[in-house]
């Protein structure tokens, strides 16, 4: 899956060019700063909510104590925080890989319709096949994500010029809108599942349980490993398919494996948290400002930044509407939609 190379993409800098501008020491410092920010986000996620927890009670709860309401509140927020971390990391990493594979700055699991395809598969499984197990959700979501990615690329490749970034984005947005309507059509006759599906479809990490996370972890870990192993080949693909092949890269194999890793991440994330959008779009662009275009650095940064962004969004959702909560999918949409418009308006980002 690749997009037409236009504009500045045809003269994309070699993988080592970013390293000259950003020495490894600077990148390591930014990585440490990002890790510290992520730790602060985790502390805020455990302490902030409808009931704020003082630091001393937070420390006591983390030490295993559960003697009062403050400490009990922390215990209920631990799986929620863990889910926000793993889903945010998965979406950030998947977005960076999708943008690298397609050389499309608009690529994102939500924009390309992959998350909505996974959602449609899960909802169809629930409504028509009695699908209720965590493993069943994950397998259905991965299958739906994979089929949708193939469909969007096929539609975006039609016509003159092949799969340009704009055509892929339009195909993804149109597919996402169509699948949203299909989901509504599937759910409407089933009042017994409508409330649960409606809430899940917004995207959120509330009500997280460790047993659900444990079911998704093997798929998320496998997807992350595949994506990280593709970092160096993705640097070669940034030079163009012909040059990458001349350097000894198996272009089709690299692109297919990297896309498989991103589909695993998107499918498993959607199964456990719903279709959360824009994390995979915003995070890689911000990380490129810190570390450049070298995927060996960009992918780990995107995972950490994605985890931090989703955790912060979850905390903001608890604060804005106290004592009620806004699902994290609403917060990420409020942040990501203006960012998406800004990217579309920038003519120099037609391709990576």
From TrEMBL:
Its main location: membrane. One of its GO terms (biological process) is siderophore-iron import into cell. It is a multi-pass membrane protein. Gene3D superfamilies: ABC transporter involved in vitamin B12 uptake, BtuC (1.10.3470.10). Pfam families: FecCD. GO terms for molecular function: transmembrane transporter activity. It is found in: Cell membrane. The chain crosses the membrane at residues 28-48, 78-98, 110-131, 137-156, 168-188, 257-286, 298-320, 326-344. Keywords: Cell membrane, Membrane, Transmembrane, Transmembrane helix, Transport. It comes from the Bacteria. One of its GO terms (cellular component) is plasma membrane. Belongs to the binding-protein-dependent transport system permease family. FecCD subfamily. This is Iron complex transport system permease protein.
